[in-house]
Design a protein that fits this description.
The complex is a heterodimer. Chain A is about 55% helix and about 20% strand. Chain A is an alpha/beta fold. In chain A, helix 9 runs antiparallel to helix 11. By secondary structure, chain B is α/β, with parallel strands linked by helices. Classes of the chains: A alpha/beta, B alpha/beta.
């Protein structure tokens, strides 16, 4: 850079000075401010004049005028050197003329250059590094993409494989089961009681094999993330009681009793009924299996943010060591009390998978000889969250098949006022009646789903324009109904219609304003 | 005299045909078997069964399609059809797709004979 030139003054004008002037005057990094010598006819002075470099005869004056310069001492007489020595101050630097001057200067220059070179090299290394890193990242990304593709292919293969295997296992099992069961039933002729005994055992084991196949499939689906929960608002005490009822014959044959407790008496949860029943079946089944006497306790408690379920028994308990491995696949602890109740070793893994899918927790507490308590929690949802999730879930399915879909949301304001005026029960039946009337106005027997004071309907293969028309029809039906009941002052219906793909291409986009 | 009710089983597994035929005969039905998708609908027309048990995974034609076809031919559309399969993911959505294919009921394999009998009796109006 020009402003970074090194300013030099050459003191002395002999042969050395001339060589120096000629070598340096055209150098980019150097500016020769002048050549100073008492002898104006010296070859250095002549050379400088020829090249347009200022010359001077007076050291003191010239040096004083150009303080910020480096003085190169190439004086050849002892007197001149001494005079110069007296004049220079701390700001100037004198390069000893006894060292070959050009070399020194070039040394300096090359130091600077190499410094620059070094920086450039470093920069280059850095940029090379960056480039490499970039390339590396890109390669890595490509590799990851490839791996991902391979993995999803593998995953597909695995689930195809499992599906095929289980089909292949079930088909012969069907023949075996029927053959054994027909023999037992006497369809194929009379059997001795010994044969009956062994065939019964055979049938039990066929059932067991069938359970293992089913469980393996369930588990592999959970692990592959292929299970979709069909959540809905559920009366939990009802669900628990229904589940317990299916165990009544097993319970009474073992002389056991089941006690259910709910706090409060009514609890609603947002869950996949079949899946939670599967978990309860597994836990209650386990409890019965390992309990000789006493009772099984099943409870559900509303804890505010979540609902806590528990299944406890007065059975033989689980050791601390085994407690830690409880949810591991194919781990079976302890001998079942009844030999025909052999498990598959997968039940608890499946249960954990199901609870995980519900974003809940499951664990067990136990004391050897005193009994075991299994606890699982399910998060609670407010009606807004449920609404959002239900719409999102319905949309997810629609988006997968890329069908045309509209969502119609109707919000009833003043439900609280309505409840106050009519009483809770009457308000509810009023709402049900309203929904029925609105459903009748919908084509293709589409359903209206109610979440507290919001009603929505997922209208398949419906354009936005059509949905807006439907909305108008529904609104006029709704308002007429409100007027007829003299309730149009307390309540009003707000609406919203959105459509895929018109209003967004992802569930997040579509549900953003809900 | 009471004429025997006719059941047609369509399944590609000879062993399954054999055991099912035996079981159904023990219940007093007259049983006809057909081992593949091709000609299955024709069999329904010719045999004129009171009920069809139809495997979904046939080597040539999908059982759902056969069912749909049976249900769209006026002369035979009233014949009750029970879909059966050992294929797990089909067992899951058999209810939904079965409805779409207009099947009357479905049964997963391996099946329990009393469950099958119950379904048959219900569909035959016994």
């Amino acid at each position: 850079m020009p402003e970074e030139k090194i300013n030099i003054i050459i003191a002395g004008a002999g042969e050395k000075a001339r060589a120096l002037i000629e070598a340096l005057h055209s150098h980019k990094a150097i500016r020769i401010l002048g050549v100073v010598d008492k002898d104006s006819s010296a070859i250095g002075i002549k050379c400088a004049q020829r090249l347009g470099i200022p010359t001077a005869a007076d050291y003191q004056g010239f040096l004083a005028r150009n303080e910020a310069a480096e003085i190169i001492d190439v004086t050849e007489s002892k007197d001149a050197r001494e005079e110069l020595g007296r004049l220079i101050n701390d700001n100037t630097r004198v390069i000893d003329s006894r060292i070959p001057i050009v070399e020194v200067l070039f040394q300096e220059l090359s130091n600077k250059v190499s410094e620059i070179e070094k920086i450039r090299a470093e920069l280059e290394v850095q940029s090379w590094g960056l480039k490499k890193t970039n390339e590396g990242v890109r390669t890595l990304y490509k590799e990851l993409e490839k791996k991902n593709e391979e993995l999803s292919k593998l995953d597909q293969l695995k689930s195809d494989f499992l599906s095929t295997v289980s089909h292949e296992l079930r088909t012969p099992l069907t023949t075996i089961r029927e053959t054994v069961s027909q023999t037992l039933d006497g369809v194929l002729g009379p059997t001795t009681s010994k044969q009956q005994e062994f065939l019964s055992m055979c049938l039990e084991n066929i059932e067991r094999l069938r359970r293992i196949i089913n469980n393996l499939l369930d588990l592999s689906k959970i692990e592959a993330g292929k299970i979709e929960l069909k959540k809905k608002l559920t009366d939990i005490p009802g669900l628990v009681k229904r589940t317990c009822l299916t165990f009544s014959s097993r319970l009474s044959s073992k002389g056991l009793e089941v006690k259910t407790t709910f706090s409060p008496e009514t609890i609603e949860g947002y869950l996949d009924e079949d899946k939670i029943i599967q978990v309860l079946n597994n836990l209650i089944g386990n409890s019965i299996k390992f309990t000789k006497q006493g009772f099984i306790g099943v409870s559900a408690v509303d804890k505010g943010d979540f609902i806590e379920f528990s299944v406890s028994d007065t059975g033989k308990g689980i050791s601390e060591e085994n407690l830690a491995q409880l949810f591991t696949k194919f781990k079976q602890f302890g001998q079942a009390v009844d030999p025909e109740e052999k498990g598959t070793g997968l039940g608890l893994s499946i249960s954990k998978g199901i609870i995980d899918l519900h974003r809940g927790k499951i664990w067990a507490e136990s004391k050897l000889g005193q009994g075991t308590r299994f606890i699982f929690t399910l998060p609670k949802y407010n009606s807004r969250q449920i609404l959002k999730e239900r719409i999102a879930d319905s949309l997810k399915v629609a988006l997968r098949t890329q069908e045309l879909i509209s969502v119609l949301v109707l919000e009833l304001s003043g439900l609280a006022a309505l409840q106050e005026k009519l009483g809770r029960q009457k308000a509810e039946s009023f709402l049900n009646e309203l929904v029925k009337i609105l459903e009748e106005a919908l084509p293709n027997r589409e359903r209206i789903i109610v979440e507290a004071d919001v009603m929505f309907s997922i209208l398949k293969e419906t354009t936005k324009a059509r949905a807006l028309n439907l909305k108008d029809e529904l609104l006029s039906c709704g308002i007429e109904f409100l007027k007829k009941n003299g309730l149009d002052k307390e309540t009003a219906i707000a609406w919203r219609v959105f459509n895929f793909p018109e209003d967004g291409s992802s569930v997040e986009q579509l549900c953003a304003d809900l | 005299m009471d004429t025997k009710r006719k059941i047609l089983i369509i399944d590609d597994e000879p062993d399954i045909l054999k055991v099912m035929k035996n079981r159904l005969e023990s219940w007093g039905f007259e049983v006809f078997c057909w081992p593949t998708g091709v000609g299955a609908v024709k069999q329904v027309r010719e045999v004129g069964p009171d009920l069809v048990i139809l495997d979904i995974m046939l080597p040539d034609i999908n059982g759902y399609d056969i069912c749909y076809k049976i249900k769209s031919i006026p002369e035979i559309s009233s014949t009750p059809v029970i879909l059966a399969t050992a294929k797990p993911e089909w067992q899951q959505d058999m209810g939904d797709i079965g409805k779409f294919a207009k099947a009357d009921d479905y049964i997963p394999k391996p099946f329990e004979s009393d469950v099958l009998l119950e379904k048959i009796n219900r569909l035959l109006g016994k």
